Amino acid sequence: MSAGRCLSDLPDDLLRHILFFAPTKEAAATAVLSRRWRSLWRTCGAVNMDSRSYGRRLDASARDAFFRDAEAALAAATAPV
Amino acid sequence: MEVDKGKGEAEETRKVAEADRDTVTLKSSDGKLFEVSKEAAARLSTVLAGMIAGGSIDDNGTDLKQIGSEALENVVDYCNKHANSIPSAALISSSISFNTAPFKEPEEWERKFVDRLSHDALFDLVEAANFLGMERLLDVTCHKISEMMKGKSPDQIREVFNIKNDYTKEELEEIRQELAWAFYDD
Fold this sequence. Notes:
The complex is a heterodimer.
Chain A: H1 12-20, H2 24-29, H3 60-76
Chain B: H1 2-20, E1 23-27, E2 33-37, H2 38-44, H3 46-53, E3 62-63, H4 69-84, H5 89-93, H6 108-115, H7 119-131, H8 135-149, H9 154-161, H10 169-178, H11 180-183
Parallel strand pairs in B: 1-3
Antiparallel strand pairs in B: 1-2
Helix pairs in contact in B: 2-3, 2-4, 4-7, 7-8
C-alpha cells in the first residue's frame, strides 16, 4: 500500500463491489475500459435501473427504452440478482 | 520458581487491565500505534470483534501487517467518529449483509469523511475495510468510487483511474455492439 496506486490494483471482488452501486447502464459501459473489466459488471450482483438515465420526463418511448434495457441487463447478468 | 510465579502474576494483572480498558491499540505495517474505541471496533469490524472476543488483542499494539499507517489512521478515525455519532436504527440493521439489506445512503459525516481522501488513500481504505471485515466502511468507500465514475465517458474513467486500454479496435467495436443498449446515447 504505497503511493501511486490505481483502481486496477484492487482485486476483482472489490471492483464488483464498486459496480454494485453503479447504475446498470454505467456499470455495463465499464466493459470497454480494459480486458479485465469486460465481464466484471455481469457478476457484480445488482441491476440498478435508474430512470434518470432516460431523461427528466419518462414519456412512452423513454419508458420503452427503460424496459428494453432492463431486459437486456438482466439477460446479461450472470450472478443471481 | 519464584521468578516464574511473579511473571505469571504480572501476566495475569496485564490481562485483567487489558480487559478493563475501553480502547484497543492497533499497530500498522510500518509500526505506528493507534488507539481506537473497543466498542466501536467490535461493532464495526468483524475481524476486530473476533480478535477482542478471542483475547488476541495485544496491549502493546495488535499487529495489522497488511495495513499501512495512513489507511489505519483513517480506519481508526472512522471508528472513533462512528462511536461519537448516534447510529440510526437503519444503519444498525443494514450492517447484516450488503446482499440482503438495502444499502443506506452515506450520512453527511461519512460523505465528508471520504470526500477529503486522495485516490490513493481511498483505494487503501477500501482494502483495509475489506481486510478488517468493516462492511459499512467498505460500502461507503466503494459507493464513493462508483460516484466518481458517474457521468464519465470510458476515456475519462480511464484517465481518472489510470486504467490502460488493452483492447484492439476490433474488440472494442465488438463489445460496443454486444452492449449497444449501454451506449446508444453516447
